[in-house]
Amino acid sequence: MAMKIRLARGGSKKRPFYRIVAADSRMPRDGRFIEKLGTYNPLLPKDSEERVKMDLDAVKAWLDKGAQPTDRVARMLEAAGVLAKKERNNPKKAVPGKKAQDRAEEKAAKAADAAEAAADAE
Length: 122
Fold this sequence. Notes:
By secondary structure, the protein is of the alpha+beta class.
């Protein structure tokens, strides 16, 4: 059985609240789970202690049994000091998309034309 430590969404519309659960990876996101390991409330400020609450002993036990955390839960575990920080590299994250690059080129060309016209007028 492939186990995951993941988020199960609760809360009403536009008011998310998540449970951190250990579940079989084949089960639906909000469906059956084996054990509740904690909670996550994204509406609270980032520095609030109530934002993420976890039973770290239970989490460590599941990790020892081979459960794989999802990306978001792994970030929370790294912040709590349970997992080692993983090197992440996305060099294209800050590069604008193709259309934005085209617009920037057009704007630069217009500015250059306007500067040339102003220089010719003098």
